[in-house]
Design a protein that fits this description.
Number of strands: 11
Number of domains: 2
CATH topology of the largest domain: Rossmann fold
Structural class: alpha/beta
Shape: globular
Helix content: 40-55%
Distance between the termini: 41 Å
Strand order of the largest sheet: 4-3-5-6
Largest sheet: 4 strands, parallel
Bound molecules: nicotinamide-adenine-dinucleotide, zinc ion
Length: about 350
C-alpha cells in the first residue's frame, strides 16, 4: 500500500515517534505538529538538500501553523565543524528563537549532527526534529540523540546527547541519493542485519533494493531504538552497534577520511568476520556470505592499509579502555557477541581477517 505510514515509538525520556513512508516531506508539518505545538521552526539544511526539498518542507510547516525560517550551509563533512555550528547558533539568535521554538534538521547525518548540536546548546537546549534524507541518516543517525561536530584533532569530538521530538523518514528522498551515498547507508543496514536480524540481512541479497527500503529502514530503526531505550547515554549496550567499526574507523583515519564511513565499515565488517571465523570465535561460518552481500551492494570487503597501520590507527580510538579493547564479533548472521582482547593482539586479529581491496 503506497501511502501507508509506519510508526515506531522510541521509548526514551521523553518518548518520540519515527514516521516512515513515501511522500512524508510534503506532510511533515502535520506529523511534526503531532509532537510539537505550532511555533517558530528553524530549518537547518545543506546546499544540496535545500535545492531538492527545502521549499516543500517550508510549505508543509507553514500549512500546519509553524512560522518558518531557514539556514543553509555548504554540503559535506567539511562543514561539520565549530565554525558552521557558530553560524547556526548566530542564525537562531538573529531569528530570535525562544525556548518554545524548534530546530528542524533536514538532510543527512551531517545536517542532523549539526542541527541537533545547535538545538542542544542554544538557550541551553531547545527541541528539534529530524527529517533524514540519506539512507545512512534514516537507518542510523536520525535516531538515538547523538549529535557532534568534528574538531581538528578528530571526528565527532565535541557533541551532546539530545533525543529529537520526532523523526520523519520520507522514503521518496532516497530516490535522488547518489549511488555512493546509498551504499554507505546499505553498509550500516547490512551491519544491523548481521548483528541482530537475519531477515534484514537477506533483504540485501538482491540486485534491486527499491521495493524493500521502507522495510529495511523500519527494521534498522526498531533495532537501534531498542538499544537506545536501554542505553540512552551510550554507556554499554549501544556499543554493539560498533560491529565492523574498530577496523572501519581505522581505515577512515588511514585514508585521511577520503574513504566514506559506510565503505570503511563494510571493509571493517569483512575483516572482523573473516578474523572471527579464522580464530574460531564464530558458531557458524558467515564471512563468505557477508562479503558476497556487501559486494552485491557495491561495497568493499578489503583495504589497502596493512594490519599494522590499521592497529596503529585503531589504538588511538576514543573507545579504547586502558590496555584492552572490546570488539563486537559476529557469531552467525543475526547474532553477535563481545570479545575483549589486549591491545597487543589487535594487529594479529586484523591480519587474520585482512584482505587487499
Ligand atoms: N549521530 C549519530 O548517531 C551518527 C551516526 C552515524 C553517522 N553520523 C554522522 O553522519 C554523517 C554522515 O551522514 P551522511 O552519509 O548522511 O552524510 P551527509 O549528510 O554529508 O550526506 C551525504 C551527501 O548526500 C547529499 N544528500 C543528502 N540527502 C540527499 C538526497 N536525498 N538526495 C541527494 N543528495 C542528498 C548531501 O548533501 C551530502 O552531499 C557523518 O558526519 C557521521 O559522523 C552520525
Ligand atoms: Zn557507523
Amino acid at each position: 500500500m503506497a501511502n501507508t505510514i509506519q510508526t515506531i515509538p522510541i521509548k526514551t525520556q521523553p518518548e518520540y515517534t519515527v514516521f516512515i513512508g513515501p511522500g512524508l516531506l510534503g506532510r511533515c508539518g502535520e506529523l511534526i505538529a503531532s509532537a510539537l505545538a505550532p511555533c517558530r521552526a528553524a530549518v537547518v539544511t545543506d546546499s544540496n538538500v535545500a535545492k531538492l526539498y527545502l521549499s516543500q518542507v517550508e510549505e508543509s510547516l507553514r500549512l500546519a501553523g509553524f512560522a518558518v525560517c531557514a539556514h543553509i550551509f555548504p554540503a559535506g563533512e567539511e562543514s561539520k565543524n565549530l565554525s558552521t555550528l557558530s553560524q547556526v547558533l548566530e542564525f537562531l539568535a538573529e531569528e530570535q528563537l525562544t525556548r518554545s521554538d524548534c530546530v528542524v534538521a533536514l538532510g543527512g547525518g551531517v545536517c542532523g549532527d549539526m542541527a541537533g548540536f545547535a538545538a542542544g546548546c542554544y538557550l541551553r537546549g531547545i527541541k528539534y526534529v529530524q527529517l533524514p534524507t540519506t539512507l545512512l541518516s534514516a537507518v542510523d543517525s536520525s535516531v538515538g540523540g547523538k549529535t557532534a561536530v568534528d574538531l581538528r584533532h578528530g571526528k565527532n569530538l565535541a557533541g551532546l546527547f539530545l533525543q529529537p521530538s520526532a523523526v520523519v523518514c520520507d522514503m521518496d528522498c532516497l530516490k535522488t541519493l547518489p549511488p555512493l551515498e546509498r551504499a554507505d547507508g546499505a553498509a550500516e543496514a547490512i551491519k544491523t542485519g548481521v548483528l541482530s536480524d537475519e531477515g534484514l540481512f537477506a533483504l540485501f541479497d538482491t540486485d534491486d533494493l527499491t521495493g524493500d527500503l521502507g522495510e529495511i529502514v523500519a527494521r534498522c530503526i526498531a533495532f537501534k531504538g531498542s538499544l537506545v531505550e536501554r542505553d540512552e547515554l551510550d554507556n554499554g549496550l549501544r556499543r554493539t552497534l560498533n560491529l565492523g567499526h574498530t577496523a572501519g574507523h581505522a581505515i577512515e583515519k588511514c585514508s585521511g577520511y577520503t574513504v566514506h564511513h559506510g565503505h570503511a565499515v563494510a571493509a571493517g565488517l569483512s575483516i572482523i568476520a573473516r578474523a572471527a571465523e579464522a580464530l574460531g570465535w564464530t558458531e557458524e561460518p558467515c564471512a563468505k556470505r557477508i562479503c558476497t552481500v556487501l559486494r552485491r551492494n557495491c561495497l568493499p570487503t578489503g583495504t589497502e592499509y596493512s594490519p599494522r597501520a590499521l592497529a596503529h590507527a585503531a589504538l588511538a580510538d576514543k573507545k579504547r579502555r586502558g590496555g584492552e579493547i572490546a570488539l563486537v564479533i559476529p557469531r552467525r548472521i543475526g547474532t553477535c557477541g563481545m570479545k575483549t582482547v589486549s591491545v597487543g593482539e589487535l594487529e594479529s586479529i586484523f591480519a587474520a581477517g585482512w584482505e587487499e581491496f
